[in-house]
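Our preliminary data section would be incomplete without showing what the modeling component actually yields. Below, a chain of 181 amino acids is followed by its predicted structure, encoded as C-alpha cells that our downstream tools consume directly.
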Amino acid sequence: MKYLIVVDMQKDFITGSLGTEEAKAILPKVADKVRHYDGRIIFTKDTHTEEYLNTQEGRILPVKHCILGEDGWMLADELEEAAGSGGYKIYQKPAFGSVELAEALKRENEKEPIDEIELCGLCTDICVISNALLLKAFLPEVPVCVDASCCAGVTPKSHENALEAMKMCQVHIKEGERKSK
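Predicted structure:
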C-alpha cells in the first residue's frame, strides 16, 4: 500500500495571511497529484484556536492563521474538488508535525506493510520536514519520499535547505521533479 500525505494545503498558506507566490504555483500540481494518485490519500491541517497569539508559536510567529472553522483553515478549493468524496482522512494538528498521523501509519504498517509514504505540500521547511522526519522515526524501514515540485517553503532558499536536510535523513527527494536553484 502507498500513501500520499498532503501537508497543510490550506487557504491561509496559499492566498491568505501567510500565502506566497510559490504556494500558489504548486497548487495545480498538488491537485493533479491528488486526482491521479494510486493509493491512499491523507491530508493534514494546521489547526489553531483564537488563543493562537498566546501560544509559543504565536509569540514567535505573531500572524493569526488556520483558525479552526475560519475560511483560511479550509483546504484550497482545488484540492477539495480533486479529492472529491474519496473518503480521505484529515489529521488536524496543533503543531508542525502530527504524532497522531505517525502513530496511525505505524499501526497500519503492522497490519499491512506500507510500500511508500510520499509527502507534498506546505511549508517544506516547517511542516513537511517535521512530518517526514516523524514518519522516518516511527517507520524507519518504510521508504519516505518528498515530491519537491509539489512543495514550497517560506522562501525558495529555506525550501532548498529543507530538501537537503531531509535528504541527509534518508528521505528520498524526487530530484527529477525538483526545480533548479
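The chain has a mean pLDDT of 94. Strands lie at 2-7, 40-46, 89-93, 116-122, 144-152, 172-173. Preliminary results of this kind motivate Aim 1 of the renewal.
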